Amino acid sequence: MFPDAIGAFVAEMDFGVPPAVAEVVRTAADSQAMGYLPMADRAAAKRATADWLARSFDWQIPADNVHLLPDVLSVMRIAIQRFTPPGSPVIVPTPAYMPFLTVVPALDREVIEVPSLLDDDGRYHLDLVAIDAAFAAGAGLLVLCNPWNPVGRVLTRDELEAVAEVVDRRGGRVFSDEIHAPLVLDDLPHLPYASLDERTAGHTITAVAASKGWNIPGLKCGQMLLSNDDDVATFAPYAADAGDTVGLLGGRAVVAAYDESQDWLDDVVSYLRGNRDLLVTMVEDIPGLRISPVEGTYIAWLDCRELDLPGGPAQFFRREAGVALTDGTMCGEAGDGFARFIFAMPRPILRDALERMREAVLARR
Question: Are 237 and 272 contained in the same domain?
């Protein structure tokens, strides 16, 4: 019915890139600078990351403890391979970012899915009892995603400290994916998990990046943050080899984003907040559809269970509304009956997508 669809499934924004980032790419093309990332630029990217963390979250990380890697999943692989017992399972709270469920088995590790708790208001909470049991059964690592893709939560200090208590008691490790830290939509602080206290600094490998906040995932330059001396020493033999996977454009774009593009980010967050508010209002007019509160990210988690859509929500809305979503089952068994919706698009297109979805639902009644 719809040869073309409104795409709401790829986690990137339809808002272009900051002018300073565009200038990095133009300058490289004009000067034909397409070689390896020089040591001076590598050092600048590490310094820019550390400065951004200090400004934004009052988290003091030495620039030497920042390691450049292509993306968050690269950091996750290192966290599993270098910082957990060989063969130990990995705990993934679900719903989860889809690749978390595929990277782990690709490394010959077992995934322990821990479905999260859902309250009457549609707000998700980590199931600490189940996480504790998974550690007790031999798991070595907890995957913590905050802000939480796909459910939109920004975890509070109390929630993070409760996680820390479980991990510390069981002698576990945490991989903390904080790639959406720049995209907090409500008046809530993002608290880097490793920054809470000595316990969390001692058991955490953190991943951040400019890729989501400044819309540059294709330039491939994420950052792994090591927050204790033991981990710095453990990773030292592998650091040079890992860093060689980052390209020149990505390294320079990180500096342009973190150092020069805060105003651009502020405007984007304001626009996303308006999109989120429109989304919530319009979903209320779609009978049988519910949305989890979106406190951060540009990802909405839609509860379609009451609609009982044939073939699942993503297939139904693609076929009947011309809107392409991610089916919730790709985010774990807990996602059955749900859909993941990327709302980082121009507002008229967002309105069109939601109107199409509403018409498709009403046509079934």
Answer: no
231-257 pLDDT tens trace: 999 999 999 888 778 999 999 999 999
Element (H, E) at 67: strand 66-69
Question: What's the total number of domains in the chain?
Answer: 2
Short-list 363, 225, 338, 326, CA closest to 11: 326
Q: Is the peptide bond before 19 cis (omega within 30 degrees of 0)?
A: no
Rounded Cα distance between 190 and 178, Å, is 9
- Tokens of residue 148, six digits: 């939480």
pTM given for the model: 0.97
Structural domain boundaries enclosing 334: 6-16+263-364
Does residue 210 lie in a domain region?
A: yes
Contacts of 271 (CB under 8 A, 6+ apart): 15, 347
Q: Mutual orientation of helices 229-243 and 72-83 as an angle, nearest 10°?
A: 130
Q: How far apart are CA 275 and CA 343, in angstroms?
A: 7
